[in-house]
Specification:
Layout lengths: L7 E10 L2 E2 L16 E5 L12 E8 L4 E7 L9 E3 L2 E3 L4 E7 L2 E7 L8 E17 L8 E6 L9 E4 L10 E6 L6 E5 L2 E5 L5 E5 L5 E6 L7 E6 L12 E4 L9 E5 L5 E9 L6 E3 L12 E2 L6 E8 L4 E6 L6 E8 L3 E6 L9 E2 L4 E9 L4
Antiparallel strand pairs: 1-9, 1-29, 2-28, 3-10, 4-9, 4-10, 5-8, 5-10, 6-7, 8-29, 10-11, 12-17, 13-16, 13-18, 14-15, 14-17, 18-19, 20-25, 21-24, 21-26, 22-25, 23-24, 26-27
């Protein structure tokens, strides 16, 4: 269907109820409880590449509210922009308004377009998931699917500590940072200042897998969101496969985390804390047992340090600080030569890749064409 600039078009589209399964054992995302869902989000993901079958997608999932009004605003036009919503093709720079019934999901896909920068606003709390299929991250031929539940805008922050990816030292990772619709926002990444653009992600590659400190600079700067993207292995000694971690801001850290290591994976928990807080850390009541040499200083971050601890498969853990000092904990797991996942440590883990349903619902949508 073609849209005329400035005109309003109403279409009928099919929605799928929320029911989740997976076609890939490593493609998984945590699920936030309904009391921390939000009304506003910005999509942040890895852009699709040139490989056959590679696709980027994001989904807006309603909670149990009987009716939720949603507005999705796509970023300005780019070359070769193709976004698909059901049977409808949507242009970059376009706005779409629609209504979700309880537990319904609306999914937008593209094989050519970076959907990052898309703004989502809802009248009732919703969840937003970003996913990639057959994605390649970095100079590697390793592909996998990724899926993450994004944090709502009020859960963003101004200070982030990004940990190295265990067993991926020569391949590393990339980070992407966005600021939503805010203007005049600058971030410092490992001591280098970058000015962010509204609805445009900043991408920084960290090929040497060092820890990275990211913080908003300037008194008037807004909060930002950050996602770490694990690169596929580039050498035989590395184990990396594409994975995405929505990194919690340091302002959102806790003093205790409860989690269970996945079955069948090589899995680590990466810990980030202040140098002065190391001695108070306990894993299932015992000191971490990490030698001083295993703690890495995070450059340009004052006294932040990080290390990784190998976990036993299918084992439950409590990671806490005896002095109730806040610290960060991220899980990273992989099956050698196959796939990987990354996530904040304290979160449940349903598989959120393919949405299936026995029931289809029909809703009425209004699409607003971009102004030219």
């Amino acid at each position: 269907m073609l849209l005329t600039a400035g005109k309003l078009m109403v279409v009928v589209a099919t929605l799928l109820c929320v029911s989740c399964t997976s076609s890939d054992v490593c493609s998984s995302s945590y699920s936030l409880s309904t009391d921390v869902l939000g009304l506003s989000y910005e999509v942040l993901m890895w852009p699709p590449g040139m490989q056959d079958g590679e696709q980027a997608a994001f989904s807006v999932a309603a909670s149990t509210s009987s009716s939720t009004n949603v507005r999705v605003r796509f970023p300005p036009a780019t070359n070769d922009c193709v976004i698909v919503f059901g049977a409808v093709r949507i242009d970059c720079g376009q706005t779409i308004d629609f209504t979700l019934l309880g537990m319904e999901t609306a999914t937008f896909t593209s094989t050519t377009t970076d959907l990052s920068g898309t703004l989502v606003e809802a009248s009732m709390p919703v969840a937003v998931y970003a996913s990639n299929s057959l994605v390649t991250i970095g100079p590697s031929n390793v592909t996998d699917a990724t899926s993450e539940q994004l944090f709502p805008v009020p859960a963003w922050g101004r200070q982030f500590v990004v940990a190295p990816v265990p067993d991926n030292n020569q391949s590393g990772y990339s980070i992407r940072v966005t600021c939503g619709s805010a203007v005049n926002v600058a971030v410092e990444v490992a001591g280098i200042t970058h000015l962010l653009s509204s609805q445009r992600p900043l991408t920084v590659d960290v090929a040497d897998n060092r820890p990275t400190y990211v913080n908003v600079v300037g008194a008037g700067g807004s909060d930002v969101q950050l996602v770490q993207f694990v690169r596929g292995a580039t050498v035989s000694t590395d184990s990396g496969a594409p994975a995405a971690l929505v990194v919690p801001a340091a302002e959102r850290f806790s003093d205790a985390y409860n989690f269970t290591a996945a079955a069948g994976y090589i899995e680590y928990v990466s810990v980030v804390c202040r140098q002065s807080d190391i001695s108070g850390l306990r894993l299932n009541g015992q000191p971490l047992g990490v030698p001083d040499s295993a703690w890495l200083n995070v450059d340009n971050s004052s006294d932040w340090v990080t290390t990784a601890v190998r976990l036993q498969s299918s084992t439950s853990y409590t990671l806490e600080h005896t002095g109730q000092r806040q610290f960060g904990a991220y899980s990273y797991g992989y099956i050698l030569g196959q796939c990987a996942f990354a996530r904040p440590a304290d979160a449940s883990l349903p598989l959120q890749v393919i949405y299936l349903s026995e029931h289809h619902y029909f809703s009425r949508y209004s699409l607003v064409a971009p102004q030219r």
